[in-house]
Amino acid sequence: MSAPLVRPRKNKVIAGVCAGLARRFGTTPTTMRVIFLVSCLLPGPQFLIYLALWVLLPSEDEYRKTAW
User: Per-residue DSSP letters for 2-48?
Assistant: First the structure.
């Protein structure tokens, strides 16, 4: 089973979105951050998606409170 998509308490730089995505997809947070930065060079709503994930993804603490 894969890891839940949550923002971790540790190993985060700004909001923990890249660290959460890295944990979910089985890569390192640094790799995910580089992918995000390179994708920002392309046209598209990458930064808006990051902001939306920051707001919508639960933090690790909130997830543990609601998880069974």
Answer: PPP--B-SSS-SSSSHHHHHHHHHTS-HHHHHHHHHHHTTSSSSHHH
d(CA 12, CA 28): 12
* Most distant CA atoms of the chain, gap in Å: 41
CA-wise closest residue to 57 among 5, 19, 22 = 5
The whole-chain average pLDDT of the chain stands at 87
Give the pLDDT of residue 13: 87
Of 64, 28, 32, 23, the closest CA to residue 50 belongs to 32
